[in-house]
Task: structure prediction
Amino acid sequence: QKFSVNDRLTSETSRLDQEVYVELWSKGIIWDKSLGSVWLPLADVRRSNEDSGGDWFNVIREEDKPLMNGTHDSLYSLLIDARFELPSDLSNNEAKELERKLQNLYSVFKDEMVYLSQQSRRPSIQPDPKSDDNGNSNSQSPSRPSSVHYPGELSPEYHNGQNESIDGSITSRDPVSSDIETSHKESPGTSDAENKMQDTRTDSHPPMTNGVIRATPPEIVTEIISDENPRIVSDSKPKKPLEMWKLAFDKIKPQKNPNPSNNRPRSVEFNWSTVLEDATKVLPDNRDMFIKDVNIALPLINRSHRTVGTVPHQPSINNSDLKLRVYKKTLQALLYPISNSSPHTFEKWSASGPTYCCECTGLLWGIRKQGMKCKGAAIKSNKRGSRDRSQQVRQDMAKRMDDQESCNAELFHLVRDVFNIENRLHVGYLKHVRQSILDGTSKWSAKIKTKVVCAQGLIAKDRTGLSDPYVTVQVGKTKKRTETVQQNLNPEWNEEFVFDCNNASDRIKVRVWDEDDDFKSRIKSTFSREADDFLGQAIIDVRTLNGQMDVWYNLEKRTEKSLVSGSIRLIISIDKANDNEESVAPYHQQYTCLHENLFYYLCEKNNGKVPIPTVSSTEDSWKVYFPKEGQEILREFAMSFGIEEIYQAMTHFSCLTTRLTSPGVPAVMSSLLANINAYYAHTTDSHNASDRFAAANFGKDKFVKILDQLHNVLRIDMCSYRTSFPSSSPEKLADLKATVDLLTSITFFRMKVLNITSPPRASQVVTECVKACLKSTYQYILQNCTDLYDNATNDNEEPDNSNTSTNSANAVNGNHVKHFEFWRKLISVIVSVLEEDKNWYTSVLSQFPSELNVGHLSAEHSWTYLAQDMKEFLAEHAQGAVIENNNEFIKLQFKVKWLYDNYFKDIPAFKSVIPEYPSWFEPYVMQWLHENEEASKEFMYGAFNRDESNEENEEFQPISERSPFSSSVVDIFCSLTQSYEIIKKLECPDPVLLGKYMERFCRTISSVLLGYAACISRDFKKYCSSETTACTLMNNIHQATVQLEKLFLAMGGESLGLEPKKILNELQNRLKETITQISSIFADSHEPTVHQALLKLSAILSTVKGAANVPGNATTVGKQSQEDSYHVMGPLLEFLDSHLNSYHHKCDKNILKRILKELWRLVLSKMERVVVLPPLSDVKEITREGSKNLSPKQCFILEIGLKNISKYFHASGTGLKKNYLEKSIELQSLRYALSLYTQTTDTLIKTFVESQTAQDRYGLDDCVGELNLQVELFTHPGTGEHKVTVKVVEATGLLWQSANMFRPFIEINVIGPHLHDRKRRQSTRSKSNNWDPKFNEIFYFILSNEDDPYSFELHICARDYCFTRQNQLVGMCVIQLREIADVGSRSCWWPLSRAVFMDETGRTILRILSQRMHDEVAREFVSLKSECRPGNNAARN
Result:
């Protein structure tokens, strides 16, 4: 498989002896897999400005075995084009010439390197026997000049040996051989020939120290030469250039791979600090830029090798010269510790004469210190001569060194082991250091140059808020001062002073003063020496000086009442007389070397872990770095050579960065950095903290770089906290908590000390790291879900060999996002992750309770990632028209719901948010509801059929006496309730989606119940013959309404959406309509029986004769009337009594009432039509129906009978309510019909006019002509009488055929109450043979004032006049005065109709009035309203 990268990478180097490593990695979700590497020496890189095709290189893996020809069989190859870029301003010819020269020059260099490699097997050069006691050569080779090192700057030798191991020693072992042996042992693929070659090369190498020929002190050289097989040979000849090349080669050889073959990659230890340093260069200036896409693979890099400061901050580990120097200085500090004499601890003592301290030569006998002496210090009276005094001091010092060596032998042994010194060499060095201490006391003299450069952050003493500082420098009794800088708290002097010092115990006293030249200071100078204000001092022991040092000193107090702040920069160089020592690193760097070597030695001794010292309650824990012996060594060295505590703390902090994974280290580092913050930020004003830190001897840039790299590494560890700090380890959890504290301290340091305005807050950094870890964790478990789940579930189970193949197949099939089992396992694994974060990491990472809750954050992001993947999975499956395995999706939704409710529902991010997951399953739930509807309908039909034809062949048998309905309705609602329980268990939190589900389910309910009702209604008529079956079916539908109401309440009742409620309400109404319908059908099935009973009733009623007036004996007549009523109503009451009692036992109460209502309607309507107002076939029959009219007495008997019937239907409260019966339309209509028989003619006519408002309906469809009239209505204001003026203008379009002459005329009739004594009819003159006659005649009518015009109407007839026979009707129209009363007058065309239209009420009134033959008004009214045009057989009703 081929792939192309085509990335161009550029870098710079000044070391042609180095090489380029190209590593090939396979990108993974959790970790990256190394596929191998290619080693490309820079010696083989061409020099050109033009690209070439490149060369193919085999990618070598550690497990690849070499072939017979020394090459390797590789699976991968890389095409690499590497070249050195030439200057771009050269022409083509110049570039080619330069390329040629460089190629030739480097060929010579390669040849010399090969030659030097061969010569390196010869014995090494013996050092000069005249070398001093410190191991520094005094040969003719030029000495290395001393250099000035500024704070934070590294000496040149610090850049050597960066990739070497930390256990380099300064013994006579050959590190090159050691490296070859190590490589030989660690390389499993090395051939036997290569092993032999390496063994030979190992034996031939001379003793060297890290590639540098080491000088040896004289006394040690003597011991070595006296051996039988001396290994060091004297050679004091000047070195040739070839030898210088050899020295350079030996210097760099330990850094190279012992096997120079291009095809053999060296084993490279992953240096995380180098990666971070390079990343820092690439990132923008904001050092706190955080790379969020750190995946979970990072913790899989061996954290035991992850360091922060290995390359830039531990250069002294492999610097043999510096280590040897520090070793001797450490012995010096331990042999004669300054802690015993300085600072002075005085005790009571009396001296007879002036007495001096042998340590500081201070006068102990005098005014200030009379009766006191230095405790433990050697003293000598000056009564004896100076010679005796010096001799006594040497004796006392020798005695003290003997005591120190015997009492603290373990300290010396520890120093020996730390620097890996052989015991015999250690003894020699110890003697040499002892002698140098004694000699330095009597022969010591030096010239000290002190340059006062500047100061920072001085305290203000003047009223102006500033000071006028100057500096005094005193060595011994010599005192000098600088010029005064006016009004400045950060002055610069740059003045240099030279002092002669003859006593190694002298001190340089540097004091800063504020010059005052006012009256107060002059008065003060009269009585005291010090007229100026004290600003601070720095006391420097001369013994701590070595070479040239550029150091910042913090100003200290002189007394407890002194107010001091700031620091001062001094450049101090010391030139010791008769001192031939080579200039070495300053004491601060020597201390760094001691601290680092001691640190790594103790770590190795403690199995690679940092030894955490036990601190007593009286000590400051942050000032104790090692166990007792190591801490004592550091203390003596720091006190002897003036190393301040803050520098020690920063050095130990730098060392700890290389052992971040050791238990307890983050807590120690957090405490250290917190105290460093306090030192710089809490001891002075905030605006001076940065200046104080800039003056630190450790180096501002150096410490900031350490913090930046540490910050990046900590973030990387936090990005994989689940792996870096597993919850199963309490120690790691404690380290995790301390890591967050350390990040907080770094943020505080940047803000308070570095004065960065808005550094990234620790809470923000930790939150981003946790998010990155959560993202990587989810990706990992998504890819390895099945394996993780199986491992978790099979830990406590024994494997079943019989099901191995089946389980394997299931594992393969289940580990795919398209399988339901995969998602169930994924949810289980996510739950385990959430439980871990909630129960362990939340309590550990609790420093920011208001900003970070790991449990909540883990739940929020886990749900986000899961939602994204599952949503895509479900959307993909929902695209088809029919979804397969829909039940599996419903089960998956229940699983997701359980996960959300238990782990995500209550976190703040989701508390007030409607969850999204129900919408993912919407298509599946809707399809399930659709399938459920079909299944429910099939179940309904099955239940109905089972109920219809049961085992006993009895149709629709009631369940029990108390449950008068059959089992089918129960089965149907059991099925619907089960379906709803599934929807209810979904507990859909989305109200909109829940409304959709409910609406769809309501449609299912409606479809099922309406189908059930349709089945009953369809065949109900055939079941009416059996009262029991009919009642059971009606009870079934009623029970359906009852159960529907219960189901409605269970579904939420009024809280349901509008659409579901609308559907259920419509369903309820339709079921009630069905009940009403089948009840009516059931009642109508009794119509023949009721009709026969009413016919018998009518026949009996017709036999009742007599007046309706009640005689004087009302009681007797009342009983007689009651008996007559029972006699008349007997057939009907017999029917009601037999049937209503049966319905009471067989029907539900509500069904019984519905049957009663329908029977009540049937009985009364039938009674009205059969008994009271039998129907007429034609209006003309009114005059012939006299036998069908009731007398007043008959009406009275019927009134009594209606009360008896009402009692049957009321049934003492178990039937219909009396109020319903009294207000029923049928009863009102029947009573109204009966009342018509007793009303007056005027009342009936008035009722007719007011009720019959559409008498001209026939004229609209069948018009026989039109009549133009003008009608006016005037009401007299005094009498209230109404005057009607009618002008007949003309008629047109008269449809009439006659054999004789046609003589039309218009007849006008006024109809209304109270007109018996007034003119009611007028007519126009006739017109001969004119079908469009014009009349233009006016007529007047006076109406009664007892009624308003609404009770009157004009009945106008067009007639054909005939002298010999009755006038024939051509057409008629009716004008109701209510139409005129509103406008006063009206003129229009009215259509003429063949007859008057009237409803049942009108015909009833007309029938009643027809019986009053002696009433002229009634007779005229009946004649007008019953008249029809000839040829019209009926009134068209």
